[in-house]
Design brief:
By secondary structure, this protein is of the alpha+beta class. The chain has a single domain, classed as 2-Layer Sandwich (Heat Shock Protein 90), CATH 3.30.565.10. The chain is built from 5 helices and 7 strands; from the N terminus they run αβαββαββααββ. A 5-stranded mixed beta sheet has the order 2-4-5-7-6. It has a two-stranded antiparallel ribbon with strand order 1-3. Strand 4 and strand 5 form a beta hairpin. Helix 2 runs parallel beside helix 3. The longest helix is centred in the first third of the chain and has 29 residues. It is globular.
């Protein structure tokens, strides 16, 4: 395949996976489906989340960077948790202009750990900071064909909450940032 065709194919595959993740997450949330909690190596979870995002970032011309000192294990519903992180990274990639950077940071504190996604997009509006994790909330309701349905942040927030964690929306000097704080 030519380079252009290969890039289009990667974009289609990545978009299909994203849509599949949203549908699966919504069905799980509605049906109350349970995935077993398992002991997961935090450094491997971080690495997998990063690797999962590379194709979409490349297809959008976004540089994906990472830094992590995550260590140890945590009891997680692995696929749910990876989908939640994937939703955050996908949003960051979507809102960062081509040529920009999305940065994933994993860090340990004395009694907890956290994962933060930084983008170089327009950041969150005051309304998005207040309501962005509510089900079906969309900041710009005029964008009906943009692929956003107000589910990604809500699903991520529900998954994090089911793990006794917190999801926090913020801005930094170059764009938006979303932090998952876990006990």
């Amino acid at each position: 395949l030519s380079e252009d065709c290969r890039e289009m194919a990667e974009t289609i595959v990545s978009s299909s996976r994203r849509a599949e993740g949203y549908v699966a997450g919504l069905l799980e949330a509605c049906a109350g489906a349970e995935e077993e909690f398992q002991s997961c190596d935090l450094s491997l979870i971080f690495k997998e989340a990063f690797q999962n995002a590379l194709p979409l970032a490349a297809s959008k011309g976004i540089l994906l960077k990472k830094e992590s000192d995550l260590r140890g294990t945590a009891s997680l519903q692995k696929e749910h948790f990876l989908r939640a992180v994937g939703n955050l990274v996908d949003n960051a990639i979507e809102y960062t202009p081509s040529g920009g950077t999305v940065f994933l940071k994993g860090s340990m504190t004395e009694k907890s750990w956290q994962l933060t996604v930084f983008d170089q997009g327009p950041g969150f509006t005051k309304e998005a900071l207040a309501h962005g994790t509510k089900r079906l909330w969309r900041g710009d309701t005029g964008r009906s064909l943009d692929g956003h349905r107000g589910l990604g942040l809500w699903i991520a927030a529900q998954v994090v909450k089911s793990h006794s964690g917190e999801l926090e929306l913020n801005n930094w000097e170059r764009g938006g940032m979303v932090t998952i704080r876990m006990p």
